[in-house]
Design a protein that fits this description.
The structure is a single chain. This protein has a four-stranded mixed beta sheet with strand order 3-2-1-4, covered by helices on one side. The longest helix is centred in the middle third of the chain and has 18 residues, at about 65-85. It is α+β, with helices and mostly antiparallel strands and about 120 residues long. Helix 1 (about 65-85) crosses helix 2 (about 95-100). The chain is built from three helices and four strands, in the order βββαβαα.
Length: about 120
């Protein structure tokens, strides 16, 4: 069986991690969804300004869209940080649509308003 693989060639780009300025911490969240059955979950982690692990979380959400799972992950992460007394945060997530809604740059419906 023949297999063709096409790789788009790009110039290498060096990416490096830079420590945050204290007292900032990093909250990194993600949502996921099993496409076949629609079950979603959200997870994330919190790191201190040097990148050391503080705490992580993972929660089963139920039958929701990937967009809502992404928002739910951010919400859960922010709640976790509030309970730990962390007030200075840099939040990272891979959903530009969710970030636009959180930052007020994109309209949302009433269901999303519960999470934002």
């Amino acid at each position: 069986m023949a297999c063709n693989i096409f790789v788009k060639s790009q110039a290498p780009r060096w990416i490096s991690w830079q420590p945050l300025v204290p007292p900032f911490c990093m909250l990194n969240t993600d949502g996921s969804r099993l496409q076949e059955i629609g079950l979603a979950r959200a997870s994330g982690l919190v790191q201190d300004h040097l990148g050391a692990f503080i705490q992580g979380f993972s929660v089963n959400i139920g039958l929701v869209s990937i967009f809502l799972a992404e928002l739910w992950g951010c919400r859960e992460g922010l709640i976790l940080c509030r309970h730990r007394g962390l007030k200075h945060l840099v939040v990272e997530m891979d959903s530009s649509s969710a970030m636009q809604v959180i930052n007020g740059l994109k309209e949302h419906d009433s269901l999303v308003a519960v999470l934002v």
